[in-house]
Amino acid sequence: MSSTNRGTQRNADDYYVTPHWLIEDFLAAFSENCRFNFDEQAYPLMLDPSAGGCEQYPMSYPTVLEKHGFTVDSWDIRQDSRAKFKGRDFLSIDPTYTPAYQIIITNPPFNVAQEFTEHALEMVPNGGLVIMLQRLNWLGSQKRKPMWQKLPLAAVYVHSKRPGFDPQKPSKTDSTEYAHFVFCKGYELAPELFVI
Q: Could you tell me the maximum CA-CA distance found in the chain, to the nearest angstrom?
């Protein structure tokens, strides 16, 4: 996902390369500040359902998370992805026929981010986490108000540095701020907000 109001062309299947430093920043802040025990013993199996990757670039979340000792299944709807399971449409997968993923983490296509979040919450067990990278303004809009009234948002990690999603132009940042939104199935308390 990338903001497109800087003349950016929207990529096929809404595929953009998530910068590894952005994920590293999130992991550091999440581990340090969050009440969840975020380590490979607590969450032995994770899923990135839109893992990306291509012949030029590795998958972002699986690459970074595996470096930290996590086991990550990778899916992608694109056939040219580096995901373990290619051509897999996350939204069409029956959540009752999947392994018990304790965490689902991804940079979903923006136009189906709500659907990705709701579907992921069906797949994780009670207490499981769903983590989505989104524009900070995902919190706004009257259309999404009902979503925020029902989804179990536990924390929002706001990135103080704007990312860029084109590895060939690393100094060109996006036109908006981003955050990692952390949902916890069964969570009912007010969310925590961290700026990183």
A: 44
